[in-house]
Amino acid sequence: MAVVPYKDQNEGKKAQVATMFNNISKRYDLLNHVLSMGIDIIWRKKAVKLLKADQPKLILDIATGTGDFAIEALALNPDKVIGVDISEGMLAEGRKKLKKRKLEDKIELQLGDSEKLLFEENKFDAVIVSFGVRNFENLEKGLADMNRVLKPGAKTVIIEFSKPKRFPMKQLYNFYFKHILPKIGKIVSKDNSAYTYLPESVQAFPDGEDFLQVLRKVGFKNTQCKPLTFGIASIYIGEK
């Protein structure tokens, strides 16, 4: 059974995730940086550097949210970054950010389904995702579609939460995720379900080697996993 934000509703995971992000969109950036203590910014910079040698000119940022990863990807000097997300609320916040920074000519944000991308095959020089694949309704389908739109030999770089395995980080992480994070999330976002869903979705996600197996199953090769900050998160790389 899929982990969903609103257990009392009959909608599927995709619709519920869109509703959840619409609900928290105005406070998402603040919460994201506060709850991760700003480490998420460092993680994105590290992930982008892994594509430096590839010099991608057209980049797709899936589950772009408010566009933070798309903005970070501009360090690669691409011609264009296209960000796709299922939440119009998140995209609206992202467009405000782009307008303020005068980046609208470099980054385009589109409403779209990550599992049914409206792009032709072999289009992008790189596909990036930060903290988004965990929210896919059908993980294999979403990853397969990412592979489809990548050019042969091009890479995907994915950041996702993972589960620390060693003492004491494992215990500290579990305590923070289960007891502290949902309380702060509820107070700031006014949506209790959003930050209860987060630890539940992380717990259910196939991290590490399990996720690399899924990447390989849908067609990616030369897969790698690079743990971040004691295993709190990981960067995954796959090549078409």
Automatic annotation (TrEMBL):
Top-rank taxon: Bacteria
Enzyme Commission number, as recorded: 2.1.1.163
InterPro entries (alphabetical): SAM-dependent_MTases_sf, UbiE/COQ5_MeTrFase, UbiE/COQ5_MeTrFase_CS
Pfam families: Ubie_methyltran
Binding site for S-adenosyl-L-methionine: T66, D85, D113, S114, S130
PROSITE patterns on file: SAM_MT_UBIE, UBIE_1, UBIE_2
Reactions this protein catalyses: a 2-demethylmenaquinol + S-adenosyl-L-methionine = a menaquinol + S-adenosyl-L-homocysteine + H(+)
Alphabetically ordered keywords of this record: Menaquinone biosynthesis, Methyltransferase, S-adenosyl-L-methionine, Transferase
GO biological process, one term: menaquinone biosynthetic process
Pathway terms, separated by semicolons: Quinol/quinone metabolism; menaquinone biosynthesis; menaquinol from 1,4-dihydroxy-2-naphthoate: step 2/2
UniProt cross-references to SUPFAM superfamilies, sorted A to Z: S-adenosyl-L-methionine-dependent methyltransferases
A GO molecular-function descriptor: demethylmenaquinone methyltransferase activity
Claim: Protein biosynthesis is one of the keywords in the record: no
UniProt family annotation: Belongs to the class I-like SAM-binding methyltransferase superfamily. MenG/UbiE family.
Function recorded in the entry: Methyltransferase required for the conversion of demethylmenaquinol (DMKH2) to menaquinol (MKH2).
NCBIfam families assigned: MenG_MenH_UbiE, PRK00216.1-5
The protein's name: Demethylmenaquinone methyltransferase
Organism: Litoribacter ruber
Gene: ubiE
